[in-house]
Design a protein that fits this description.
By secondary structure, the protein is α+β, with helices and mostly antiparallel strands. It is built from seven helices and twelve strands. It is 45% helix and 30% strand.
């Protein structure tokens, strides 16, 4: 329950400041994610995305799956638009309810694992419990701006940069916190949002942005991912054309609005089809 109370407090604090931050800042971020989990082999490109901050909204575009996720804090919601002209809306309130249900289910599962009396089950349960209430050993080198958050089951290595203004850090990290919460619900088998929220809080305290984030997770097997973020402080002409295209699609009569669960199923099917090619 403490975890739920802390998350609820964080949601209130972020929601109270997010709108003003986004209204004040235009920028773009190009992100690539690679799988670094095979030593001696060339890292595998897993995804790339373009995130555009403009006029109080954030547009996160994943071209490979043809999806754009729009954060609209003025309306307290996410709008998800898929390649097949299917769309859904997830309000902040609904997202918080999903997170609450996911937390309760995870805590129940951990309790079941711990009652088995099996070492592997106990380790698995401890790894999940860590994600629910993470504790990290933090280290930071001011000269290189390298940040390390070390945990028993999950760790971050971050190369940070100094943004042109504090508002840039506040804007991006507020968005990244909401995105972590949505992704934990939208994508099956994702990590819980608390570890990334903790990282965002540490970066915000230091007024820094992440240019590279290396994540290592140990649950059943080890996951080793690296995200590279390229920030630009002005939009390009193509960005505004894309925004116009997405906003027209949302308003189009042919766009089919579906439930979040149906949208999630369709997204999973598209990703599976791409992997099988």
């Amino acid at each position: 329950m403490l975890r739920l109370q802390l998350l609820a407090l964080l949601v209130i604090l972020i929601a109270s400041t997010l709108t003003g931050q986004l209204l004040a800042q235009d920028m773009r971020v190009y992100t690539t994610v690679t799988d670094e989990g095979r030593p001696g082999e060339t890292p595998t490109l897993m995804s790339h995305s373009l995130t555009i901050f403009h006029a109080g909204k954030v547009y996160d575009f994943m071209e490979k799956v043809g999806e754009v996720v729009i954060l609209d804090p003025q309306q307290s919601r996410f709008v998800l638009l898929g390649a097949s002209q299917k769309a859904t809306i997830v309000s902040f309130e609904e997202l918080n309810q999903f997170l609450k249900s996911a937390t309760i289910a995870a805590e129940k599962y951990v309790d079941e694992l711990e009652t088995k009396g099996d070492r592997l089950a106990a380790e698995h349960g401890a790894a999940i419990r860590f994600q629910l209430m993470p504790t990290f050993k933090e280290s930071f080198d001011p000269a290189s701006r390298k940040l390390s958050l070390g945990g028993e089951f999950l760790s971050y290595e971050v190369q940070a940069i100094v943004p042109p203004s504090e508002s840039c850090a506040e804007t991006y990290l507020a968005y990244a916190t909401w995105a972590a919460k949505l992704n934990s619900i939208l994508h099956p088998h994702s990590t819980m949002p608390e570890p990334r929220v903790h990282l965002n809080t540490v970066l915000l305290k230091r007024k820094l942005l992440p240019s590279q984030v290396t994540l290592r997770v140990k649950v059943d097997s080890e996951l080793h991912l690296r995200a590279d973020h390229k920030f630009a402080w002005e939009l390009e002409a193509v960005d505004k054309r894309l925004i116009t295209q997405w906003e027209r699609s949302i308003a189009a009569a042919q766009t089919k609005w579906v439930s979040f669960q149906q949208y999630q199923q369709d997204l999973y099917s598209r990703k599976t089809a791409l992997r099988d090619r």
